Amino acid sequence: MPISGLALDTGSAVIWGDVFSTESRITRDNNHFIMSIAITDYTGSINLKIFDEIGNKAKLEAISVGDTILIQGDISYDKYDRDMVMRPRNINTVKKNIITDDAPVKRVELHLHTTMSAMDAVTPAEQLVYRAHEWGHPAIAITDHGVVQGFPDAMYAKKVVVITDELAEYPLTGWSIPEIYVDYVVQIDAIGDPAGIVSGTTRMTRNPVALVMAQTAARVIRNSGLLRDGFSFQTGAGGATLATAMYLKQIMLREQIHGSYAQGGITGYLVDMLNEGCFRALMDVQCFDLKAAASIRDNPNHCEVGAAQYASAGAKSSIMDSLDVAVLGATEIDTDFNVNVHTDSSGRIMGGSGGHSDAAAGSKLSIITAPLFRGRLPIVRDRVTCISTPGKDIDVLVTQAGIAVNPRREELRERLTQAGMQVLEITQLRALAEQITGTPAPLPPAGRVIAKVIGRDGTLLDTIGERKGEE
């Protein structure tokens, strides 16, 4: 039966799934072991919980991430996971049938967005290209907007189609994609209205709560020991993250600190910091407003870079590897510092995560700015609805009620405390939020899996299930 159909009163069932996580440990008596195997059949996900004699450990640990298995077992509630699990009685590895395109004439998809179109897609370009190749499609057209991030991946496509509303005489100077990668050029009347580049997220907030968080985040950066000549910085494009750049600029000008570069999605506020000497360069993978677009055209120190140079974990070197501080947002953060930016509190997909997990993993200091609650829902939770960025990569949470430091960064906690900043436990912030909002009811089980969240190193971090109204 499908995993989405399981319930605590199901009893015995037979299910199948792809393995996306395994974990095991030996019990204190050294005679037994406990193993958890997380699987998904793309209608839902569940943990298999196994308690067995130590002699069977090697045989079960042969099951690895990516395997497809068939399981017969019993459904029960696990008090340690605080969730429904299956306790297997029989497990067999099986070969999964792969979906194919058997049409005699293959289609060509001419409108595809990748994760590089902020808030528009959840599938990376390389997966789209691989699937098109696997199905025998002769070409695909990637139509990401306002960015150059997706093009390094597109270089691996069999055919590359460039869509433009302006043709220039040969040779074009200051190109983004060299002609050696381009198969076809399609000219249309208009791609869109440039005024649409500006959105509400790229305007400076007037919200007093967001401004308090931004001031606090700037103080964290100043007291971290990283704000010095040669400092490098990335911030988001909205709310408290954007306001943090404003307060950081004031500190840098007052203390005459000259940074090396700012990176990521660039706004007019970072352009101002470049022009006023706060940074020597801007490394730009996406222009968020017209001022940034004009700057990248006119200023040689405002540099266009692709996704591989920006943050590829497989590159020999990337800009992210030299990053000091990243200020990021969150729709949810849990007490293990895991962050959700993919879904809202109801579990519905809001969009892609952009460079969120890359910046958190690559920076020396990653800061999340988020209010304690939005509406009547707490932002700090026991567990996030979806893990977009793992907690091991998040260092500080800044809210309007105080800050929390990841226990992994005890030296940072001491440095901030010595600077006179009050540091709370993240569980205290969750309790403060729930005093106001109450404890949110758990979400009902999700339906079939409609998206996978893949980490920077290629591991599966989480899956996102279909919610009512998304069919």
Can you describe what's shown?
By secondary structure, the chain is α/β, with parallel strands linked by helices. The chain is built from 11 helices and 25 strands. It has helices at residues 57-61, 125-134, 151-154, 208-223, 239-254, 268-275, 290-298, 307-311, 356-362, 410-418, 426-437; strands spanning 12-26, 32-40, 45-53, 68-78, 83-94, 109-112, 140-142, 161-164, 184-187, 232-235, 259-266, 279-287, 302-304, 325-328, 332-334, 339-340, 365-369, 373-374, 377-378, 380-381, 396-399, 402-405, 423-424, 449-454, 460-465. The strands form 7 sheets. A 9-stranded mixed β-sheet has the order 13-12-11-10-14-17-21-22-23, sandwiched between helices. Strands 1-2-3-5-4 form a 5-stranded mixed barrel. It has a 3-stranded mixed β-sheet with strand order 16-15-20. Helix 4 (208-223) packs across helix 5. The longest helix is centred in the middle third of the chain and has 16 residues, at 208-223.
